[in-house]
Amino acid sequence: MSAMTTSSNVIVAVNEALYAALNTYINPKPEDPENEEPSAGVDIRFDLPQVDSTQSSPTVSVFLYDVHEDLQLRQSQPARLNAGSGMLRAGWVNLNCNYLITYWETQSAGSDGNGPDSSPDNQAVRVMTRALQALLNNRELDGIAGSYSRIIPPQENLNSLGNFWQSLGNRPRLSLMYSVTVPILLDNSLPQTLVKSVSNEIVQAAAVDMNALGSLLWKTLCEQMGTGAEQKLARVTLKCRQKAADEGGAFAVTINLALAGMMDKDNQSNLEAILKRWESSQEAVTEINGGSVYISEINRDKIVFI
Protein backbone atom coordinates (compact mmCIF):
# COMPACT_ATOMS: atom_id res chain seq x y z
CA MET A 1 0.00 0.00 0.00
CA SER A 2 1.57 3.28 -1.12
CA ALA A 3 1.58 6.73 0.48
CA MET A 4 0.38 5.37 3.80
CA THR A 5 -0.03 7.87 6.64
CA THR A 6 2.52 7.66 9.44
CA SER A 7 1.47 7.30 13.06
CA SER A 8 2.94 10.68 14.03
CA ASN A 9 0.51 12.78 11.97
CA VAL A 10 -2.45 10.53 11.23
CA ILE A 11 -5.15 12.43 13.17
CA VAL A 12 -3.99 15.79 11.83
CA ALA A 13 -4.05 14.39 8.29
CA VAL A 14 -7.59 13.03 8.76
CA ASN A 15 -8.80 16.37 10.17
CA GLU A 16 -7.29 18.31 7.27
CA ALA A 17 -8.72 15.96 4.64
CA LEU A 18 -12.13 16.04 6.31
CA TYR A 19 -12.08 19.84 6.46
CA ALA A 20 -11.22 20.06 2.76
CA ALA A 21 -14.07 17.71 1.81
CA LEU A 22 -16.65 19.52 3.95
CA ASN A 23 -15.55 23.00 2.93
CA THR A 24 -15.81 22.14 -0.79
CA TYR A 25 -19.50 21.28 -0.42
CA ILE A 26 -20.58 23.59 2.41
CA ASN A 27 -18.78 26.70 1.16
CA PRO A 28 -18.61 26.23 -2.64
CA LYS A 29 -16.93 28.85 -4.79
CA PRO A 30 -19.31 31.44 -6.33
CA GLU A 31 -18.40 30.33 -9.87
CA ASP A 32 -19.18 26.69 -9.07
CA PRO A 33 -22.11 25.69 -11.38
CA GLU A 34 -23.51 23.45 -8.64
CA ASN A 35 -23.73 26.40 -6.26
CA GLU A 36 -27.42 27.25 -6.40
CA GLU A 37 -27.14 30.18 -4.01
CA PRO A 38 -24.40 32.48 -2.70
CA SER A 39 -22.31 31.01 0.08
CA ALA A 40 -23.40 32.04 3.55
CA GLY A 41 -19.87 31.67 4.91
CA VAL A 42 -20.41 28.67 7.17
CA ASP A 43 -17.65 28.26 9.75
CA ILE A 44 -16.18 24.75 10.15
CA ARG A 45 -14.47 24.12 13.47
CA PHE A 46 -13.01 21.01 15.10
CA ASP A 47 -14.30 21.50 18.63
CA LEU A 48 -17.61 22.13 20.40
CA PRO A 49 -18.75 25.77 20.72
CA GLN A 50 -19.59 27.18 24.13
CA VAL A 51 -23.02 26.01 25.25
CA ASP A 52 -24.54 29.42 26.03
CA SER A 53 -22.78 31.38 23.29
CA THR A 54 -24.37 32.67 20.07
CA GLN A 55 -22.26 32.01 17.01
CA SER A 56 -21.24 34.97 14.86
CA SER A 57 -21.82 32.87 11.74
CA PRO A 58 -23.47 29.53 10.97
CA THR A 59 -21.15 26.84 12.30
CA VAL A 60 -20.55 23.17 11.63
CA SER A 61 -18.79 21.54 14.56
CA VAL A 62 -16.66 18.48 13.76
CA PHE A 63 -15.92 16.91 17.14
CA LEU A 64 -13.56 13.92 17.38
CA TYR A 65 -14.87 11.99 20.38
CA ASP A 66 -13.25 8.56 20.00
CA VAL A 67 -10.08 7.03 18.53
CA HIS A 68 -9.29 3.32 18.69
CA GLU A 69 -7.69 0.50 16.73
CA ASP A 70 -10.16 -1.09 14.33
CA LEU A 71 -10.00 -4.77 15.32
CA GLN A 72 -12.95 -5.78 13.15
CA LEU A 73 -11.15 -4.85 9.95
CA ARG A 74 -8.52 -7.59 10.09
CA GLN A 75 -6.09 -6.29 7.52
CA SER A 76 -3.25 -5.16 9.74
CA GLN A 77 0.27 -6.32 8.97
CA PRO A 78 3.18 -6.99 11.36
CA ALA A 79 6.67 -5.73 10.67
CA ARG A 80 8.62 -7.67 8.04
CA LEU A 81 12.35 -7.99 7.64
CA ASN A 82 14.12 -6.29 4.74
CA ALA A 83 17.03 -8.67 4.23
CA GLY A 84 18.92 -6.19 2.05
CA SER A 85 19.11 -3.42 4.65
CA GLY A 86 18.85 -5.56 7.77
CA MET A 87 15.90 -3.44 8.94
CA LEU A 88 12.33 -4.29 9.81
CA ARG A 89 9.85 -2.84 7.35
CA ALA A 90 7.31 -0.90 9.37
CA GLY A 91 4.07 -2.75 9.99
CA TRP A 92 0.68 -1.09 9.86
CA VAL A 93 -2.65 -1.17 11.68
CA ASN A 94 -6.11 0.29 11.06
CA LEU A 95 -7.08 3.26 13.22
CA ASN A 96 -10.75 4.18 13.63
CA CYS A 97 -11.73 7.84 14.25
CA ASN A 98 -15.32 8.67 15.22
CA TYR A 99 -16.72 12.18 14.81
CA LEU A 100 -19.89 13.96 15.88
CA ILE A 101 -20.80 16.60 13.27
CA THR A 102 -23.40 19.16 14.42
CA TYR A 103 -24.87 22.39 13.11
CA TRP A 104 -24.93 25.51 15.32
CA GLU A 105 -27.16 28.41 14.32
CA THR A 106 -26.52 32.13 14.77
CA GLN A 107 -29.63 32.86 16.82
CA SER A 108 -31.74 31.33 19.55
CA ALA A 109 -34.78 29.25 18.69
CA GLY A 110 -37.97 31.21 18.14
CA SER A 111 -41.02 30.95 20.36
CA ASP A 112 -43.30 29.95 17.47
CA GLY A 113 -43.07 28.13 14.15
CA ASN A 114 -42.89 31.23 11.97
CA GLY A 115 -39.13 31.81 12.14
CA PRO A 116 -36.70 30.98 9.33
CA ASP A 117 -35.23 28.10 11.32
CA SER A 118 -38.67 26.47 11.53
CA SER A 119 -39.25 26.17 7.78
CA PRO A 120 -38.82 22.83 5.99
CA ASP A 121 -35.81 24.19 4.08
CA ASN A 122 -34.16 25.93 7.01
CA GLN A 123 -30.44 26.59 6.90
CA ALA A 124 -29.56 23.77 9.30
CA VAL A 125 -31.12 21.23 6.92
CA ARG A 126 -29.47 22.77 3.85
CA VAL A 127 -26.02 22.97 5.42
CA MET A 128 -26.13 19.47 6.89
CA THR A 129 -27.39 18.09 3.56
CA ARG A 130 -24.27 19.51 1.94
CA ALA A 131 -22.18 18.01 4.73
CA LEU A 132 -23.83 14.65 4.11
CA GLN A 133 -23.05 14.92 0.38
CA ALA A 134 -19.43 15.72 1.20
CA LEU A 135 -19.07 12.68 3.42
CA LEU A 136 -20.83 10.23 1.10
CA ASN A 137 -18.90 11.41 -1.96
CA ASN A 138 -15.55 11.08 -0.21
CA ARG A 139 -15.50 7.50 1.04
CA GLU A 140 -11.73 7.58 0.69
CA LEU A 141 -10.40 10.85 2.03
CA ASP A 142 -8.21 12.75 -0.39
CA GLY A 143 -4.51 12.19 0.29
CA ILE A 144 -5.02 9.28 2.71
CA ALA A 145 -4.59 6.04 0.78
CA GLY A 146 -6.66 3.11 1.98
CA SER A 147 -8.99 5.16 4.18
CA TYR A 148 -12.67 4.26 4.33
CA SER A 149 -15.45 6.37 5.83
CA ARG A 150 -19.15 5.85 6.54
CA ILE A 151 -22.12 7.42 8.31
CA ILE A 152 -22.92 5.38 11.42
CA PRO A 153 -25.75 5.25 14.00
CA PRO A 154 -25.24 6.74 17.49
CA GLN A 155 -22.51 5.01 19.46
CA GLU A 156 -22.33 3.95 23.11
CA ASN A 157 -19.17 6.06 23.44
CA LEU A 158 -21.39 9.14 23.82
CA ASN A 159 -23.36 7.56 26.69
CA SER A 160 -26.63 8.10 24.77
CA LEU A 161 -27.45 11.23 22.83
CA GLY A 162 -29.95 12.33 25.47
CA ASN A 163 -27.24 12.70 28.11
CA PHE A 164 -24.97 14.32 25.55
CA TRP A 165 -27.50 17.00 24.61
CA GLN A 166 -28.31 17.55 28.28
CA SER A 167 -24.67 18.46 28.84
CA LEU A 168 -24.98 20.95 25.97
CA GLY A 169 -27.93 22.88 27.31
CA ASN A 170 -30.80 20.46 26.67
CA ARG A 171 -31.29 21.51 23.05
CA PRO A 172 -30.88 18.72 20.48
CA ARG A 173 -29.22 19.70 17.23
CA LEU A 174 -29.13 18.19 13.79
CA SER A 175 -26.09 15.92 13.80
CA LEU A 176 -24.28 13.19 11.90
CA MET A 177 -22.19 10.35 13.28
CA TYR A 178 -19.16 9.90 11.05
CA SER A 179 -16.53 7.17 11.22
CA VAL A 180 -13.33 6.86 9.20
CA THR A 181 -10.82 4.00 9.26
CA VAL A 182 -7.25 4.87 8.32
CA PRO A 183 -4.29 2.50 7.82
CA ILE A 184 -1.20 3.91 9.54
CA LEU A 185 2.45 2.94 9.49
CA LEU A 186 4.06 1.95 12.77
CA ASP A 187 7.39 3.42 13.83
CA ASN A 188 9.17 0.09 14.28
CA SER A 189 11.87 0.11 11.60
CA LEU A 190 14.67 -1.16 13.84
CA PRO A 191 18.02 -2.74 12.90
CA GLN A 192 18.01 -6.51 13.28
CA THR A 193 20.71 -9.15 13.72
CA LEU A 194 20.53 -11.32 10.63
CA VAL A 195 21.00 -15.08 10.62
CA LYS A 196 23.83 -15.49 8.11
CA SER A 197 24.30 -19.24 8.32
CA VAL A 198 22.45 -22.27 9.58
CA SER A 199 24.12 -25.50 10.63
CA ASN A 200 22.88 -28.71 12.13
CA GLU A 201 24.34 -31.89 13.52
CA ILE A 202 22.73 -35.29 13.71
CA VAL A 203 23.64 -37.20 16.87
CA GLN A 204 22.79 -40.85 16.99
CA ALA A 205 20.64 -41.59 20.01
CA ALA A 206 20.93 -44.83 21.87
CA ALA A 207 17.87 -46.90 22.59
CA VAL A 208 18.15 -46.26 26.32
CA ASP A 209 15.32 -45.30 28.66
CA MET A 210 16.61 -42.22 30.50
CA ASN A 211 14.24 -42.80 33.43
CA ALA A 212 15.52 -46.33 33.85
CA LEU A 213 19.09 -45.09 33.61
CA GLY A 214 18.39 -42.49 36.30
CA SER A 215 17.10 -45.20 38.65
CA LEU A 216 20.16 -47.34 37.89
CA LEU A 217 22.55 -44.47 38.66
CA TRP A 218 20.68 -43.75 41.90
CA LYS A 219 21.24 -47.35 43.01
CA THR A 220 24.90 -47.13 41.94
CA LEU A 221 25.28 -43.96 44.01
CA CYS A 222 23.73 -45.70 47.03
CA GLU A 223 26.19 -48.58 46.71
CA GLN A 224 29.19 -46.24 46.56
CA MET A 225 28.03 -44.12 49.51
CA GLY A 226 27.92 -47.16 51.75
CA THR A 227 25.66 -48.25 54.62
CA GLY A 228 22.38 -46.38 55.04
CA ALA A 229 22.76 -44.57 51.73
CA GLU A 230 19.19 -45.35 50.63
CA GLN A 231 17.85 -43.36 53.58
CA LYS A 232 20.36 -40.57 52.98
CA LEU A 233 19.34 -40.31 49.31
CA ALA A 234 15.61 -40.88 49.87
CA ARG A 235 14.76 -37.28 48.89
CA VAL A 236 17.25 -37.04 46.02
CA THR A 237 16.38 -37.72 42.37
CA LEU A 238 18.66 -38.14 39.38
CA LYS A 239 17.65 -37.06 35.88
CA CYS A 240 19.60 -38.05 32.78
CA ARG A 241 19.84 -36.32 29.41
CA GLN A 242 21.62 -38.09 26.61
CA LYS A 243 24.50 -36.19 25.07
CA ALA A 244 25.86 -38.67 22.53
CA ALA A 245 25.95 -42.34 21.62
CA ASP A 246 28.72 -44.33 19.99
CA GLU A 247 27.96 -47.59 18.28
CA GLY A 248 31.07 -47.71 16.12
CA GLY A 249 32.72 -50.29 18.33
CA ALA A 250 31.39 -51.36 21.69
CA PHE A 251 28.07 -49.68 22.49
CA ALA A 252 28.44 -46.63 24.79
CA VAL A 253 26.31 -43.65 25.79
CA THR A 254 27.38 -40.30 27.26
CA ILE A 255 24.93 -38.33 29.40
CA ASN A 256 24.53 -35.15 31.41
CA LEU A 257 23.27 -35.78 34.93
CA ALA A 258 21.19 -33.45 37.14
CA LEU A 259 20.56 -33.91 40.88
CA ALA A 260 17.56 -32.44 42.67
CA GLY A 261 16.12 -32.69 46.17
CA MET A 262 17.30 -32.39 49.78
CA MET A 263 20.02 -34.15 51.74
CA ASP A 264 21.65 -34.03 55.16
CA LYS A 265 24.61 -31.65 55.16
CA ASP A 266 26.74 -34.24 56.96
CA ASN A 267 26.73 -36.37 53.79
CA GLN A 268 27.63 -33.53 51.41
CA SER A 269 31.38 -34.19 51.30
CA ASN A 270 30.92 -37.91 50.62
CA LEU A 271 28.42 -37.21 47.83
CA GLU A 272 30.60 -34.54 46.26
CA ALA A 273 33.62 -36.84 46.18
CA ILE A 274 31.66 -39.51 44.31
CA LEU A 275 30.23 -37.01 41.82
CA LYS A 276 33.65 -35.54 41.05
CA ARG A 277 34.99 -39.03 40.46
CA TRP A 278 32.14 -39.75 38.04
CA GLU A 279 32.83 -36.56 36.09
CA SER A 280 36.59 -36.98 35.84
CA SER A 281 36.78 -40.73 35.37
CA GLN A 282 37.63 -42.12 31.96
CA GLU A 283 35.90 -45.34 32.90
CA ALA A 284 32.21 -46.14 32.63
CA VAL A 285 30.14 -45.35 35.70
CA THR A 286 27.76 -48.24 35.06
CA GLU A 287 26.33 -50.36 32.26
CA ILE A 288 22.84 -50.61 30.78
CA ASN A 289 21.54 -52.88 28.02
CA GLY A 290 25.05 -54.20 27.57
CA GLY A 291 26.51 -50.74 26.94
CA SER A 292 28.81 -48.51 28.97
CA VAL A 293 27.53 -45.26 30.51
CA TYR A 294 29.80 -42.22 30.77
CA ILE A 295 28.95 -38.94 32.51
CA SER A 296 30.06 -35.70 30.86
CA GLU A 297 28.59 -33.13 33.26
CA ILE A 298 26.72 -33.12 36.58
CA ASN A 299 24.38 -30.28 37.56
CA ARG A 300 24.04 -29.76 41.33
CA ASP A 301 22.03 -26.50 41.29
CA LYS A 302 18.77 -28.05 42.49
CA ILE A 303 20.03 -30.06 45.44
CA VAL A 304 19.81 -28.49 48.90
CA PHE A 305 21.81 -29.54 51.95
CA ILE A 306 20.14 -29.00 55.32
Topology overview:
Elements: E1 5-6, H1 10-26, E2 43-45, E3 59-69, E4 80-82, E5 87-89, E6 92-104, H2 123-136, E7 148-151, H3 161-167, E8 175-185, H4 210-225, H5 229-232, E9 236-246, E10 252-263, H6 268-280, E11 286-288, E12 291-305
Parallel strand pairs: 1-8, 2-3, 10-12
Antiparallel strand pairs: 3-6, 4-5, 6-8, 7-8, 9-10, 11-12
Helix pairs in contact: 1-2
Organism: Serratia inhibens
Protein name: DUF4255 domain-containing protein
Domain Pvc16 N-terminal: 13-188
Low-confidence parts, pLDDT < 50 over ≥5 residues?
Answer: none
Distance between the termini: 66 Å
Shape: elongated
Total strands: 12
The domain tally reads: 2
The biggest beta sheet is recorded as: 6 strands, mixed
- Helix coverage percent of residues? 10-25%
- The secondary-structure element order is EHEEEEEHEHEHHEEHEE
Structural class by secondary-structure content: alpha/beta
The count of helical stretches stands at 6
Q: What does the average pLDDT come to? A: 79
Portion of residues in beta strands equals: 25-35%
* Rg calculated over all Cα atoms: 39 Å
Summarize the structure.
Strands 1, 2, 3, 6, 7 and 8 form a six-stranded mixed β-sheet that branches. Strands 9-10-12-11 form a four-stranded mixed β-sheet. It has 306 residues and is of the alpha/beta class.
